[in-house]
Amino acid sequence: MDTTKIKKILIKNITYGLILIAGLFLGWLIFGGSDNHDTTPEYGHTHEEATNQLWTCSMHPQIKQDKQGKCPICGMDLIPLKTSGKAEGAIDPNAIQLSEEAAALANIQTTRVSRQNPVKEIQLYGTIQADERLSQSQTSHVNGRIEKLSVNFTGESVRQGQTIAIVYSPELLNAQQELLEAGKMQAAQPALVQAAREKLRLWKLSDEQIAGIEQSKNGSPLIEIKANTSGIVVGKKVNQGDYVNQGNVLFDIADFSQIWAMFDAYETDLPFLKTGDNIAFTLQALPGRTFTGKISFIDPVLDKTTRTEKVSGETDKKEMLLKPEMYANDIVKAPQSQVN
After folding, report:
1. Is the C-alpha dihedral spanning 38, 39, 44, 47 positive or negative?
2. Mean pLDDT by 10 residues, the chain (340 residues)
3. Residues 155-208: pLDDT tens digits?
4. Which residues of 4-24 are buried (b: 16+ CB within 10 A; e: fewer)?
5. C-alpha gyration radius of the chain
6. Alpha helices in 52-189, H assignment, sequence order
7. For residues 44 and 49, what is the distance between their CA atoms, to the nearest angstrom?
8. Quick one: fold of 135-254?
9. In terms of Cα–Cα distance, which of 255, 201, 200 is closest to 228?
10. What is the residue extent of each domain of the chain?
């Protein structure tokens, strides 16, 4: 009886042991097998990466080898070539790869390729100049001596019709006496009177002044030289007491109501510039201000020394801010299609 109980207990323990072993085996198949399955490809991928590692020279990036060594050009140690780490494929062997930090330090900018009208930006440098078309020379109309100057220094403003000098002229006095003598014979020789009057008109005496001489019966050797334009005196050629001849320049007067921005353009930029193009220039003396205008003239003669041509931009003077010889910078945006 005791033997039978013992056998039953042994059979039961053996059965439980077999069940436990079977459970452990199934658990190993389910969990242990999947880990091995995952580990094997990962190991293979790592091995593949290690196998495909390229080495390059930091000084000669065109050198690429599949193993570590020396650069055949400079002899420096090769360094591992970094890949992009992206899934779309390997890097073009002829491409240059930069990190974001390196691209920022090199100031490299990129943009998407698109179809647009190409525009060329041309940088021009120059100065502000007076409009030559508005500049005039004030001359003496008679021979004589400068008795008085009403304009004494360069930069002084004058207005049209203002007396700028008084000239003492004996020849003028003789011409006035000839007019008075001809007036006595006006009935017999009227042409002589007209000739005497015309001579005084050539010396810029007005009809009112000539009529006054005839009425007063007295001549004067002094003649007033009046400004024929308004502007700024940019050149003073005489001093009080100087003797001058007819036609001698007394003053140079420039009208600054309209000015030029005169730029130097290199010959390589000339095909992109044409008369009528808009300009927008800035001045070193007035930072933050932009002045606009149009190209009015391009010098047809090239300077053989600087290889540049003068480009004149016409603009109206604003608030008396633009002064001759100020430095100006201009950027012209010229469509490249206009070259064709």
Report:
1. positive
2. 69 76 74 50 47 79 85 88 57 67 80 80 90 88 91 90 90 85 79 85 82 82 88 92 92 88 92 88 89 89 91 76 88 70
3. 899 999 899 999 998 888 888 888 888 888 877 777 888 888 888 888 878 788
4. eeeeeeeeeeeeeeeeeeeee
5. 49
6. 100-105, 170-184
7. 9
8. OB fold (Dihydrolipoamide Acetyltransferase, E2P) (2.40.50)
9. 255
10. 119-132+256-339, 135-254
Class of domain 119-132+256-339 as given by CATH: mainly beta
- Count of CB atoms situated within 10 Å of the CB of 65: 15
Q: Do domains 119-132+256-339 and 135-254 have the same CATH topology?
A: no
pLDDT in tens, 138-169: 998 889 999 999 998 998 999 998 999 999 98
Task: Please name the residue ranges forming H helices in the chain.
Answer: 2-27, 33-51, 100-105, 170-184, 190-202, 207-216
pTM, whole model, 2 decimals? 0.55
Spatial distance between the Cα atoms of 51 and 298, rounded to a whole number of angstroms: 66
Beta strand residue intervals within 107-245, DSSP E: 119-130, 136-139, 144-149, 157-158, 163-168, 222-226, 231-236, 243-244
Find where tokens 């933050």 sit.
Answer: 288
Direct distance between the N- and C-terminal alpha carbons of the chain, in angstroms, rounded to an integer: 120
Give the three-class secondary structure for 177: helix
